Amino acid sequence: MEQEDQAWQRLDKFLVFARFNKTRSEAGAAIAAGRVRINRLATDKPHFKIRPGDVLTLTLPRGVRVVRVRALARRRGPASEAAGLIEEIGEAG
């Protein structure tokens, strides 16, 4: 069985650790509302397993962001640490 936080991580946890949302319940609400896509596919599942290399399309209050997951985190750290978890691809067009 795969070990979470090494090979994969729940989508809602990643969104909190990468500082897109403040809480898992906030992340879950955004996911359920259809504001998150993984590799261009819509999901409404907070427990979706993401892995490094996955591309997330996020509809945020400040606009749409497209990012590639570079690494998984063990905790919600400072913004500088969170920035290392993703690679900015650009804005959805």
Question: Key features?
Answer:
about 90 residues, alpha+beta, Structural Genomics Hypothetical 15.5 Kd Protein In mrcA-pckA Intergenic Region, Chain A, two-stranded antiparallel sheet, globular
Question: Would you give an account of this structure?
Answer:
- It is a single chain.
- With 93 residues, this protein is of the alpha+beta class.
- The chain has one domain: RNA-binding S4 domain (Structural Genomics Hypothetical 15.5 Kd Protein In mrcA-pckA Intergenic Region, Chain A), CATH 3.10.290.
- Helices cover 23% and strands 29% of the residues.
- It has three helices and seven strands; from the N terminus they run E-H-H-E-E-E-E-E-H-E.
- The strands form two sheets. The protein has a five-stranded antiparallel β-sheet with strand order 3-2-5-6-7, with no helix packed on it. A two-stranded antiparallel sheet has the order 1-4.
- A hairpin with a 2-residue loop joins strand 2 and strand 3.
- Helix 1 packs across helix 2.
- The protein is globular, with a radius of gyration of 12 Å.
- 20% of the residues are buried.
